[in-house]
Write a structure and sequence with these properties.
Elements: H1 2-6, H2 8-25, E1 42-43, E2 49-50, E3 59-60, H3 62-65, E4 67-72, E5 77-82, H4 89-99, E6 109-115, E7 118-123, H5 130-139, E8 149-151, H6 155-171, E9 178-184, E10 187-195, H7 199-206, E11 212-222, E12 225-235, E13 239-242, E14 255-260, H8 262-274, E15 299-304, E16 307-312, H9 316-324, H10 326-329, E17 332-336, H11 340-352, E18 366-370, H12 372-401, H13 404-428, E19 431-432, H14 434-459, H15 467-497, H16 502-533
Parallel strand pairs: 3-19
Antiparallel strand pairs: 1-2, 4-10, 4-18, 5-7, 5-8, 6-7, 9-10, 11-12, 11-15, 13-14, 14-17, 15-16
Helix pairs in contact: 2-13, 2-16, 4-5, 6-11, 12-13, 12-14, 13-14, 13-16, 14-15, 14-16, 15-16
Length: about 525
């Protein structure tokens, strides 16, 4: 028992190696395959996701699995901390919408108060210049010049965009997709990485804002002439719950079942009665998919980003529910689409919500597609590079000491450190990419370097005959190693938290590897060396 207590660091290392083996190889133990960082997943018998054909729970990033990366800024201009009274934001927004032209809608203007008399004003339209924005602000009674306006959007808009995009890729079932912000100079970019997906598939999902509206299209009399009006009768805010997209069946086209909120049910039913949909408007829509949408009778149009995706007639049953008041007690109906693909996209847009603004993919944005076969090649090259690094380290260590009882524990300890890192990555579902592999190689180098320092300090000052003498020499070697580790962690910490793309993964792996080394593997190697060198 005393010997076990004396070598508790070796016991701790052994326990952690077993835990890492479980995280790496036990089905269902590693990070979830549907999470933001899981990639290249295949289903196992118990429903868990494994990423390498069932051998391990490791997840692979875009560079090692293939897929699409899109990086783009957000469309928009921001006037920062201009003088806007907190009680006058609605009027200012309405004036801006009117002044900036027909292509700017109320949803393209956002005012974020920063105090009683100041606010950040955003316009989400790529065809608006800073001069036009400044003129519109002055027309709204806000003093502003083009110099007060910058390209880009506020941090709140960026955060909302990231949240909505994460919901979109999650709802679409794109396993392993990641959405993050990346800084380049003063510009903030949104970066989306989707393993095992082609460019067009990803662009179709995230290229549009996803604003969904239900619009009533109906005829009315104006000065004795029949004209058609379009009135928005339902937006996403009025929907309480959203069902799963349904294919065409029983005479119904593909659709998404929805239930309205209590606040939206009454005004929606009132609009249907007021605009004639419960009378002459029943079954009176003449719209044909892809055809003219301006003279089609009484139609309920489903619009996504201002485009009509389907036009439906009012059914007799739903009209009766509107007239009797039953709809307001049970406000459930369906939003229709032209095909099941549109219905699925409609469901995603409704559930995820609308993007505040679009990504400027055609302007400053970039897209990259990595073939899965190329990702497999990178994976092979990474394995070969790691093996060469380990072999080179082993040869150098053996040449230096020429003694197996010193060199072998050193090499085994270095292997254990890498194995613990792999277990950590599998446990949290962190994706391995080329920058992470570089971090692993750096950890191998720094780890063996520290072990050599320990061995040299212990062995090259004469015979180590007692454990007390060994502990004194070990401490003398260990404190500089700990100080160097602390310096490295401080240097890498900013890279691990800032949005700097691939550098972030390298920094995180290096920091975790250094912590594992200082807290676990270096002390355990010291215990092994003590057992071999003392009586």
């Amino acid at each position: 028992m005393s010997r076990l207590r004396e070598n508790w660091r070796i016991v701790l290392l052994s326990v952690l190696i077993v835990a890492s083996a479980v995280a790496l190889f036990a089905p269902g133990v590693g990070g979830s395959g549907s999470g933001a960082n899981a990639t290249n997943a295949t289903d196992t018998a118990d429903g868990s996701a494994r990423s390498d054909g069932g051998l391990t729970n490791l997840r692979y990033g875009l560079e090692l699995s293939g897929g699409t990366r899109i990086r783009a800024p957000l469309v928009g201009l921001t006037a920062e901390e201009v003088s806007v009274d907190a009680n006058n934001t609605t009027q200012v927004a309405a004036t801006l919408t009117e002044q900036l032209g027909s292509e700017v809608t109320p949803t393209d203007v956002q005012i974020r108060p920063r105090g009683p008399e100041s606010a950040d004003v955003e316009v989400f339209a790529e065809n608006v210049t800073r001069q036009e924005f400044a003129r519109a602000l002055r027309a709204a009674g806000v003093e502003a010049s083009p110099d007060d306006i910058r390209n880009g959007v506020t941090d709140e808009t960026v955060g909302t965009t990231v949240d909505v995009l994460e919901s979109k890729v999650s709802q679409a079932g794109l396993s392993g997709a990641t959405v993050q912000t990346v800084q380049s100079g003063q510009e903030t970019y949104i970066q989306i990485e989707v393993p095992n997906a082609n460019r067009s598939e990803v662009l179709d999902l995230i290229g549009d804002r996803g604003q969904v509206r239900l619009v009533a299209h109906f005829p009315t009399q104006q000065n004795g002439t029949t004209v058609y009006r379009n009135e928005t009768v339902l937006t996403r805010e009025g929907i309480a719950s959203i069902g799963t997209a349904q294919p065409a069946r029983g005479g119904n086209p593909p659709n998404v079942p929805i239930t309205l909120t209590e606040e939206a049910a009454g005004p929606f039913a009132q609009a249907m009665r007021q605009f004639g949909f419960t009378g002459e408007g029943v079954s009176a829509c003449r719209y044909e998919p892809g055809g003219d949408a301006t003279d089609t009778g009484y139609c309920l149009y489903t619009l996504v980003d201002g485009q009509v995706v389907f036009g439906a007639s009012m059914s007799p049953d739903l009209a009766r529910d509107f007239e009797s008041g039953d709809f307001e007690r049970d406000p459930a109906f369906i939003i229709t689409a032209g095909n099941i693909s549109d219905a699925n996209q409609l469901q995603i847009d409704l559930q995820a919500g609308a993007l505040p603004t679009e990504l400027d993919i055609q302007g400053e944005g970039t897209t990259q597609f990595i073939l899965p076969s190329l990702g497999d090649r990178f994976k092979l090259y990474s394995l070969v590079t790691g093996a060469i690094a380990v072999l080179a380290v082993s040869v150098v260590v053996y040449i230096r000491y020429r003694e197996a009882r010193i060199a072998a524990p050193m090499i085994v300890t270095a292997f254990a450190e890498v194995f613990l890192l792999l277990g950590f990555a599998a446990a949290i579902g962190y994706p391995l990419d080329l920058s992470v592999i570089a971090g692993f190689i750096a950890v191998i180098g720094t780890g063996v370097d520290d072990l050599i320092i320990i061995a040299d300090e212990v062995l090259q000052q004469g015979e180590t005959s007692t454990r007390r003498m060994f502990r004194r020499r070990f401490r003398k070697a260990f404190w500089p190693i700990a100080a160097a580790a602390a310096t490295l962690i401080v240097a890498m910490a900013p890279l691990s938290v800032l949005s700097l793309g691939d550098l972030q993964g390298f920094a995180i792996v290096t920091i975790v590897g250094v912590l594992i080394g200082v807290l676990v593997t270096r002390p355990a190697y010291g215990d092994v060396l003590r057992s071999l060198m003392t009586r």
